[in-house]
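Hi Y.,

Following your request, here is the sequence exactly as I used it, all 262 residues.
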Amino acid sequence: MTEDGKKYIVAVVDDERIIREGISSVLQKKFSEKAKIVSAKNGKEALLLFEDMQNSRESVDVILTDIVMPELDGLGLIECCRKKCIGSQYLILTSHDDFSFAQKAIRCGVSDFVLKPCNTEELFAAIEKALGKSNSRKNQINVCEQVYSLPLKASISYLNEHLGDKGMNLMRLSNESAFVNPDYLGKLFKKETGLKFNDFLLKLRIEKAMELLLETDLSLQEIAEKCGYAENSAYFCVQFKKIQGMTPGEFRKNRTAVQLIP
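Below is the corresponding structure, written out as tokens. Let me know if you'd prefer a different format.
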């Protein structure tokens, strides 16, 4: 149960009916007291379901989705959900386990993988972990509402386009994107994301650094510059290790065992 007394909502999305119904059934039995299980046969159907839930003031907490599906695949679904602020934790159900997949999964915000064929204990552990993170994220991001205010949406969009600007701060953000008082904008960040502005900016910068480390051969200095640490690559490494548990160099060397940001 969430802290507001409501059941979590877990979505299972897979175009294979036997797999979809089988996973839904075992999850419902295991988590009957704390979660409601819903399902869809592809990404398009799932997206319509989630949007209907939003209109009814409900919100899906955990999305477990297959990758290869007709209409809209799993990663495409997750990308759409992130843009629409749907869901808190995204898990991939897959038999794919290669580097190129890990690259795109990071961009989509995938928090865990469940490999086919499913081991029930591993499945339960992954869902339990995701539910715990979802509850924490509910407290942090106001997921119950699932909609950021317009000033915050504008601010996040602006930040993503200017991650390399080392002088980014609330005053500039309020003047150039949100057009609200900087103190008020700071309160919006804390209220709607659960993070102070500087912590939220750090998270975005580290996510960008991860992409560049995986997808490019840029030097650490060049990546630091693109992530807003133009004059202090050493501090960039400290911040990266704080979030990821390893240095950027270690992350690049071990990129086949990618650690995703929780």
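Residues 10 and 62 are 5 Å apart (CA to CA).

Thanks again,
Q.
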